[in-house]
Amino acid sequence: MSPQRTPPRPAPRLRAALTTPGVLQRARAVATWWTGTRVARALSRYGARNGGVLASGLALTTLLSLTAALTLAWTVLMAVLGADQELRDAVASTVNAALPGLLRTGSDATGLVDPDSLVRSDVWSLAGALALAVAAWSAISLVGSLASSIRAMFGVVSLPENGLLTLGRNAVGAAGLAAGLAAGAGAGILMDLLGDWTMDRLGAGMGAGRLFIQAGSHLLALVVDAAVLLLLVRVVAGVRVPGPDLAWGLALFSAAALVLRTLGTAAVGAVKGPLLTTAASLVTLVLWIHLLVRVVLTVSAWMANPPAATPVTRPAAVHFRERPNYVTMTSPHTLDWPHHPVTGELLPELPDPDGEPDQRS
């Protein structure tokens, strides 16, 4: 059992820190104030849990799994939509809004992938069924990796549940992402119809109608993005976030995703020429996926609202200069060191306020 520890002193307010006498003392006071802010604590958690590495790995995994996931989703969509070219173009435009420059559409033939090439005509054959099964597994595995990364930002090390239930969570998440894209396509068509109806009924000009459509599309995109993150955090990752933190996190993510989507689409549209446009689409797609995953993990760390991390300055606190300097069965004496029972991470032996080390077990 850990001894009772005195809570740390609260960080100074910014005004008090800025009015601290002495340049060096003022700089230290401002640094102390910054480390106590919610943004700094979130960034510290993001860095401590290797958020950058997780984001890079997820971006690469997403890029490698994108073809399989799109093949599965597009084959299903085409079986539902059939020969309705307007709906197909609307869905392709929605996918391009989410992943700028990915698919070719009727009005823009500079996308990276021709949607028709994603449709498998041999879906009822053994080879086609296996291909779709591999695509589904790829999408489910990707969502599972994303959920694990989200849990890491909250400090949730594992889900104590049956593996089949976890697999079901991931499958629900993959289906939710596909449903989000489909909802975006339907919402885009609905907003076009509402815009035409509004202009006819109110006699509004093209400028006002276009503004109405654009505002409505952005609002629906914000709602869809918030719903997707809610699904990932609450259902797939299994994290129970307090209401206020969850609401602010969803709002922050939706706004950031809208900005990234707008910038990505603008970057692709600003490049002229088939060759340059294709290169710009690929670079923008990779960068956009990477930034979006970073936003998801950073917002998750912000919603976690973690306490300020305690810096470790003494090598002896983590047995850094010993051999081995980690917990291992090879050296049984290391098993007596304080360590996390699930991950095996070494816990630092921090001093108590009276100067004695905290001998946690």
Structure description:
This protein is mostly helical. The protein has three domains: 36 residues, no CATH class; 255 residues, no CATH class; 47 residues, no CATH class. 65% of the residues lie in helices and 0% in strands. It contains ten helices and no strands. The longest helix has 40 residues. The chain is globular, with a radius of gyration of 25 Å. The N terminus and C terminus are likely disordered.
Features:
disordered C terminus; disordered N terminus; Virul_fac_BrkB; single chain; 361 residues; mainly alpha; 10 helices; YihY/virulence factor BrkB family protein; 3 domains; 65% helix
Distance between the termini: 7 Å
Calculate Rg over CA atoms.
25 Å
Instruction: Tell me how many strands there are.
Output: 0
Q: What is the H/E string?
A: HHHHHHHHHH
Structural class: mainly alpha
Average pLDDT, to the nearest integer?
A: 77
Shape: globular
Number of helices: 10
- Our estimate of the beta-strand percent is under 5%
Poorly predicted ranges: 1-6, 355-361
Work out the helicity level: 55-70%
Count of the domains: 3
Biggest sheet features: none
Organism: Schaalia naturae
Transmembrane segments: 53-77, 123-150, 171-191, 211-233, 245-263, 275-297
Main location: membrane
Protein name: YihY/virulence factor BrkB family protein
Structure described in brief:
The chain is mainly alpha-helical and 361 residues long. The protein has helices at 14-18, 23-36, 38-48, 51-81, 85-98, 126-154, 163-202, 206-236, 243-270, 274-304. Helix content is 65%, strand content 0%.
